[in-house]
Write a structure and sequence with these properties.
Elements (H helix, E strand, L loop, with lengths): L11 E5 L3 E8 L4 E7 L3 E3 L12 E3 L5 E7 L15
Antiparallel strand pairs: 1-2, 2-3, 3-6, 4-5
């Protein structure tokens, strides 16, 4: 039987972006499931997007935003940092 994973008991905890947190819940080559937290007034890539299309998620509120990130296949190594143009 597989161990139960959660935010409190993840496979791995990591920091990313501008003081954001992430918790790996499933991490295989075929499927990645993560829970992520963005503090208020932070910006990052996100949401359902076709392959190779640039994208971003933005939290313009004063409170934390928590969301589930599911990728099939896994997103391991796909992050590209870009400078935001105003």
């Amino acid at each position: 039987m597989n161990a139960v994973v959660s935010r409190e008991n993840p496979l791995n905890h990591y920091l990313w972006g501008d003081h954001c947190d992430g918790w790996n819940l499933v991490d295989t080559a075929d499927l990645s499931v993560k829970m992520e937290r963005m503090p208020g007034h932070t910006t990052e890539q996100g949401l359902e997007i076709p392959p190779r299309l640039r994208h971003r998620i933005r939290n313009e509120s004063d409170t934390d935003l928590e969301f589930i990130l599911c990728s099939q296949p896994s997103t391991a190594g796909d992050r590209i940092n870009i400078k935001e143009e105003l």
